[in-house]
Amino acid sequence: DPRWSGAGMELTLRVAKADGAQGAPVWPFLVLNNLGRYARGTLVSPGDRIDVGGPVTGHPGVEGAPETGLTAYASLDAHLGTIDTPHGQVEFVQLFGVTAAELGAMIASTTPAVLDGLREDNPLLVTDPARA
After folding, report:
1. Which end of the chain has less neighbouring CB within 10 Å, N or C?
2. Complete edge-to-edge strand list for the sheet that includes strand 70-85
3. What is the number of other CB atoms lying within 10 angstroms of the CB of residue 9?
């Protein structure tokens, strides 16, 4: 569709700064790269859920990947919205790491309903591996 640039979406991820960290962690870049490959054939839209089958920080042994009980991503409308480019529109889709229990609640109700509850303590839905 010529209205959209490529797949028409860019995945984003807000990540909490680890205690004592001097720079940006490496694991989010690796995870977004892997999810981008997954999404190449599948569009990720706000409200979708992605069970990664393990920690959202990547496979054990990935450089700097902290241990976590977060095992899935929920997608939502990013604050960045949609932009126009010379090649078409791009919609930003934010990912947020959730626990298996939160994923179950999303399946039983809706992703937005659970995310709205989580926003009370985390308005920007920053993924913090220590949260779980």
Report:
1. N
2. 4-13, 88-99, 70-85, 49-51
3. 22
Residue 124 has pLDDT above 90, yes or no: yes
**Beta strands 88-99; 4-13: pairing state:** parallel
Q: For residues 113 and 111, give the distance between their C-alpha atoms in angstroms, rounded to a whole number.
A: 6
pLDDT over threshold 90, residue 123: yes
Q: What is the pLDDT of residue 31?
A: 85
In tens, the pLDDT along 63-78 reads: 678 889 999 999 888 7
Cβ-proximal residues to 45 (8 Å cutoff; 6+ apart), any chain: 9, 75, 93
pLDDT bucket at 41, cuts 50 / 70 / 90: low
